[in-house]
Design a protein that fits this description.
The chain is of the alpha/beta class. It folds into two domains: about 5-125, Rossmann fold (3-Layer(aba) Sandwich), CATH 3.40.50; about 130-220, no CATH class. It has six helices and ten strands. Strands 1, 2, 3, 4, 5 and 6 form a six-stranded mixed β-sheet that branches. It is globular.
């Protein structure tokens, strides 16, 4: 019997590739995507992706989107309260598992597991401990198309923001930068790939520096 599963969705490549893995698993029944959205700016936190793009991804994935509104700035208490309310909706939908796109950071995994403990929901990590250089190449070879929406200039050259996540970018990344950006070096927005029924037309707009990070504004392009 398949297990009803919700996917924690960041709009980036690791979430998207987790979605693709889950779509191929006959023991998984995907129910929805769960995303926190900054209510002040109407964007996904850190990735800075507009909510319209987020909804376009959900439509292309053929799944309902459960948006969790959070304030900006958001305290740990506010975040915990928002997620507690969201999980009540998740449980009401009969969800059994919540999947995450985490790769190797033990503290992040422990945080997820602690938050779900006692709820009756089981955490699932489809990409856990996959070698990231190999995983990055697999995503690109598999047809995933993404753009870097945020770069931490303390870890990654700021001129990488707005670029396509492709083989050329991987070849140019400094050795200190994880190929999947798992240590927060960069974040992405996925606009095409085998997890979607169709590509999402986008354009890369203004590049800005804010709060110590460099962001590229990605917008829906008129069809």
């Amino acid at each position: 019997m398949s297990r009803r599963t919700q996917l924690s969705w960041s709009s980036g490549k690791d979430s998207a590739w987790s979605l693709y893995q889950l779509q191929q698993d006959p023991k998984v029944e995907l129910v929805s995507l769960l995303t926190t959205v900054n209510t002040t700016h109407g964007r996904v936190a850190m990735h800075a992706v507009r909510e319209a793009l987020l909804r376009a991804q959900a439509e292309a994935a053929g799944l309902p989107l459960q948006v969790v509104p959070i304030p900006s700035p958001c305290s740990n208490e506010d975040y915990a309260a928002a997620m507690e309310s969201a999980l009540q909706v998740t449980l009401a939908d009969g969800v059994q598992d919540v999947a995450f796109g985490d790769l190797f950071l033990e503290d992040i995994r422990a945080y997820r597991e602690t938050n779900l403990r006692g709820t009756g929901l089981q955490p699932v990590f489809p990409l856990w401990q996959r070698p990231t250089a190999e995983l990055a190449r697999e995503m690109i070879a598999g047809g995933l198309q993404a753009v870097l929406t945020c770069v931490d200039p303390k870890q990654c050259p700021p001129e990488f923001v707005g670029r396509a996540y492709d083989a050329s970018l991987l070849a140019e990344l400094p050795e200190s930068v994880d190929p999947c950006g798992e240590k927060g070096e960069f974040h992405t927005f996925v606009h095409a790939g085998p997890m979607f029924s169709h590509p999402i037309p986008i354009a890369v707009g203004e590049v800005v520096e804010r709060d110590g990070f460099v962001f590229a504004d990605v917008v829906l392009e008129d069809r």
